[in-house]
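Chapter review: from sequence to fold.
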Amino acid sequence: MKTVFVSGRFNVLHPGHVRLFQFARECGDRLVVGVERDSVAGGDAHVPEGLRLEGVRNCSLVDEAFLMTELIEDTILRLKPAVVVKGREHEMRHNAEKTALDAYGGKLMFGSGEVAFTSRDLIRKEFASNSSAIWSLPRVFLARHGISIERLREILLQFAKLRVLVIGDLIVDEYITCDPLGMSQEDPTLVVKPIDAKRFVGGAGIVAAHSAGLGGKASFLTIVGDDVEAAYAQEVLHQQSVSSHFITDTTRPTTLKTRYRCQGKTLLRVSRLHQAPIATELRLAVLEKARALRDSVDLVVFSDFNYGVLPQDLVNELTSMFRDRGTILAADSQSSSQVGDIGRFKDMDLLTPTEREARISTRNSDDGLTVLAEKLRLSAAAKNLFLKLGEEGALVCAEVTASQPWPPDQIEALNHAPKDVAGAGDSMLIAGAMALAAGASVWEAACLGSIAAAIQVGRLGNVPIQIKELTEALNR
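The token string follows.
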């Protein structure tokens, strides 16, 4: 068997190394790689030797890898490989391997196609861009609260037993992808050509779809217009195993939000919507439908986008109706282009505001995050609160009891390279609420909510989270 040998530091296994390994494999039957120990590499070792060795071993082209402590010529005389391969940039330099190879008839070859950058370049670029792995589990948070991966798996298994009712605003999200044509010659306007359009069910609709994807028996109650957007949403939700209860209001359109995107960036957002509160007869119709569903629901989620579907009287009546039965209640009230008040959802088991939404609700622009979160939780009489902080993760705030003595704690953001952050809050809301309904602690619920959010923001558009995605994440 013809053995080929390659050696180096391999700080980061970049494409140049892979090309070199591919060339080396073509020169023989078995590829052996020597990785310089930290003591040998000295200041050129930017990554610990164990990680460097693991990276090389994980390459499918490599048959064997080991840490080198001796001189390269001594290693070659000991292994006696038929061929030693080095990068093309070494061809015109002194190569200590040549003398050792000549002693027994070995051959020195230089690989072609080596890329023109080094591991150090990659490391510097990584630090400069502040990028990291796409996402990972919150190991420190899990350890701090004594949460095992097995326990999180057990909670996920309970999702299939939950009956979930989502109430709130239906939104249809439309993404129009465009090609740039340039600037108009008549006025300073960017000119683009639409080349593709794709629609997704959003708003409270995607929250219901998430709950179905996570294994729950999902129902969705909302007000819609008499239009093609409502028909589209009903068909899609049916395909996603959501039982939709649409009440039609002929005076308002179904909310449609269109995003014009070009080369991976959003250029413009256009929203067709109606923000006035629903009429009394529609409020009574919602109450009647909710009353019919009351005894077959374990969790109610209010997903409020402040377009008038959830006026205060209706919120109070629905809360009282389901609270009397002991149903778990959760709420989210978004304030982006519109302004809402998350604090108007009283006596919830879970609230999930952003920092901005919390400050709007409490009219508090001065206090720190811990004080802000606790003031909102107390004023809304909520048992638990996730204060969403974007790239900083979330602050988890819970009612302090004898069995729950922990003060507020932060869970880090698990995805530092998001493609579309719009769906983060919805997925955290439903995964966290379903976990609480399944008997999880607030810390366990925060973990599952954060994992769901990390998965969701890693893709473009509102696509329902699937239970298998969370399960696979826990199996990593």
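Two observations follow directly from the output. The longest helix spans residues 442-456. The radius of gyration is 29 Å.
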